[in-house]
């Protein structure tokens, strides 16, 4: 089925189909029975029952205690350790990537196009902390300091909200 539509035929079919859909929608919506055939008293009663059930659930949620409560003096070190661990994981991964690239250059592993070859990958995933340079993955110290400052500011902003 290698039929090619030129632009005039495509526009004709596109707008023709669009007009057909609009006309069909108008026809079916104007001919629909919107009365519902039921009484409004049943509708009001079921609505009130639904509202009462929802209010009851909301009251139960408000009464429930959280499963655990993390005090602020524990949350701060945990956030700091998580930030440091994130950077350590990125550095270990970069070391592994360098070893893979060296093995590819030596011919031990076949060379494949990978998603880590994209510049945007390193800016989004690794916060720009590590980036490829001259065939190796190196630490960009300026971005490392910027990420550290950003994570520290976020930490204080989150702790102020607690």
Q: Could you give a short description of this structure?
A:
This protein has 162 residues and is mainly alpha-helical. The protein has five helices and two strands; from the N terminus they run H-H-H-H-E-E-H.
What does this structure look like?
It is a single chain. With 162 residues, this protein is mainly alpha-helical. The chain is 69% helix and 5% strand. The protein contains 5 helices and 2 strands, in the order H-H-H-H-E-E-H. Strand 1 (130-133) and strand 2 (136-139) form a beta hairpin. Helix 3 packs antiparallel against helix 5 (141-161). The longest helix is centred in the middle third of the chain and has 35 residues, at 72-106. The chain is flat. The N and C termini lie far apart (63 Å). The model has no long low-confidence stretch (mean pLDDT 78).
List its salient traits.
two-stranded antiparallel sheet; 5% strand; 69% helix; 162 residues
Write the layout of secondary structure elements.
Layout: H1 7-30, H2 40-63, H3 72-106, H4 119-125, E1 130-133, E2 136-139, H5 141-161
Antiparallel strand pairs: 1-2
Helix pairs in contact: 3-5
What characteristic shape results from the CA principal axes? flat
Residues in helices, as a percent range: 55-70%
Assign the structural class, choosing from mainly alpha, mainly beta, alpha/beta, alpha+beta, or little secondary structure: mainly alpha
Strands across the major sheet, in which order? 1-2
**Tally of strands:** 2
> What percent of residues are in strands?
under 5%
Catalogue the unreliable spans: none
Order of helices and strands: HHHHEEH
Return the average pLDDT rounded to an integer.
Answer: 78
Distance between the termini: 63 Å
Rg, Cα atoms, Å: 30 Å
Largest sheet: 2 strands, antiparallel
Number of helices: 5
């Amino acid at each position: 089925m290698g039929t090619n539509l030129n632009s005039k035929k495509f526009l004709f079919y596109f707008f023709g189909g669009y007009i057909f859909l609009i006309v069909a929608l108008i026809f079916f919506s104007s001919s629909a029975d919107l009365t519902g055939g039921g009484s409004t008293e049943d509708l009001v009663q079921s609505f009130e029952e639904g509202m009462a059930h929802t209010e009851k659930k909301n009251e139960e949620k408000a009464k429930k205690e959280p499963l655990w409560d993390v005090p602020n003096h524990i949350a701060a070190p945990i956030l700091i350790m998580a930030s440091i661990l994130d950077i350590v994981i990125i550095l270990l991964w970069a070391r592994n990537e360098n070893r893979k690239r060296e093995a590819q250059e030596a011919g031990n592993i076949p060379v494949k196009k990978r998603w880590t070859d994209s510049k945007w990958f390193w800016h989004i995933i690794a916060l720009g902390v590590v980036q490829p340079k001259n065939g190796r993955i190196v630490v960009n110290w300026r971005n490392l300091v910027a990420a550290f400052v950003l994570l520290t500011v976020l930490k204080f902003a989150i702790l102020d909200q607690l």
